[in-house]
TrEMBL record:
Biased composition (Pro residues): 34-44
E.C. no: 3.1.3.16
GO molecular function, one term: metal ion binding
Entry protein name: protein-serine/threonine phosphatase
Domain PPM-type phosphatase per the UniProt entry, residue ranges: 101-284
Cofactor: Mg(2+); Mn(2+)
Record key words, sorted: Hydrolase, Magnesium, Manganese, Metal-binding, Protein phosphatase
Phylogenetic placement of the source organism: Eukaryota, Viridiplantae, Streptophyta, Embryophyta, Tracheophyta
Positions of region (Disordered): 1-44
Cross-referenced InterPro entries: PP2C, PP2C_BS, PPM-type-like_dom_sf, PPM-type_phosphatase-like_dom
Entry similarity comment: Belongs to the PP2C family.
Organism: Aegilops tauschii subsp. strangulata (Goatgrass)
Length: 284
């Protein structure tokens, strides 16, 4: 007998046979296709495959957290602090108007301590939602990267030309954040950080960076670079360093003064004359 599935459940019947055809080939297997669940609304983060990649724990366990924004806030986001024990952390958010979503992930890897930070913020400026995202890769310690995380975007949002001339505001904010740190902490002479930031204002995306933390845009499945690494052996960077009285030498890789493998960064007080914090800004 062959067990078959029917609309009422399971039933048993004896199959009919055709002359010359083995019995096991008489019946094609039946496949029951379950009815698909009702689609989620387009603005739900559970619907967004990008957010599902980065969410931990699974979004299905936290839908309520996403669907109710904090009072007075114009965005939805998870709130997960920087891990102190080096454990991986991930999460994401969705703008209230459904225009964009974001995700983030951080992992210590094989290093002894975490020196890197990220920042994600969605703010309302003059009635317009603004997205601010950054990665800060520390070296020689975590102090500079942590300071930039907590202060760079605050300086930018307070800049009087933030909405009217965003490029100028970003440039000024990078430099003022660096100057404030160098003046406030005289003990971190060899500590520094790269920065790669993306600021979304309306339909314009402002990508700025110092150092070698790279920003990319995904188009049709292809990674398109939207920032340029700042390395000491690049012709323009090497010329600038040497004109300022510094030098570039090989020490496992090309380094400023034989020490630092990037030519632009926050901090690095002992090399500040050569390692500038002038951001390279591109508008998409």
């Amino acid at each position: 007998k062959v067990i078959t599935r029917c609309s009422e459940g399971l039933s048993a019947r004896k199959p009919t046979t055709r002359q010359g055809v083995p019995e096991e080939q008489q019946l094609a297997p039946t496949i029951e296709i379950p009815r698909p669940p009702s689609p989620l609304p387009p603005k739900s983060p559970e619907f967004d495959p990008f957010l599902r990649r980065f969410a931990s724990p699974p979004l299905s366990a936290r839908v309520g957290e996403w669907s109710r924004p904090p009072a007075g806030m114009g965005y939805l986001s998870t709130v997960i602090g920087h891990p102190t024990d080096g454990s991986p952390v991930s999460g994401g958010g969705l703008s209230q108007n459904g225009k964009f979503s974001y995700g983030y992930a951080s992992s210590l890897g094989k290093r002894a301590s975490m020196e890197d930070f990220y920042e994600t913020r969605i703010e309302s400026v003059d009635g317009q939602l603004i997205g601010l995202f950054g990665v800060f890769d520390g070296h020689g310690g975590a102090k500079v990267a942590e300071y930039v995380k907590h202060n760079l975007f605050s300086h930018l949002l307070r800049h009087p030309k933030f909405m009217s001339d965003t490029k100028v505001a970003i440039d000024d904010s990078y430099k003022s954040t660096d100057s404030e740190f160098l003046e406030s902490d005289s003990t971190q002479n060899q500590c520094g950080s790269t920065a790669s930031t993306a600021v979304l204002v309306g339909n314009r995306l402002f990508v700025a960076n110092v150092g070698d933390s790279r920003a990319i845009i995904c188009r049709a499945g292809n990674a398109v670079p939207v920032s340029k690494d700042h390395k000491p052996d690049q012709t323009d960077e090497r010329q600038r360093i040497e004109e300022a009285g510094g030098f570039v030498m090989w020490a496992g890789t090309w380094r400023v003064g034989g020490v630092l493998a990037v030519s632009r960064a926050f901090g690095d007080k002992l090399l500040k004359q050569y390692v500038v914090v002038d951001p390279e800004i591109r508008v998409r």
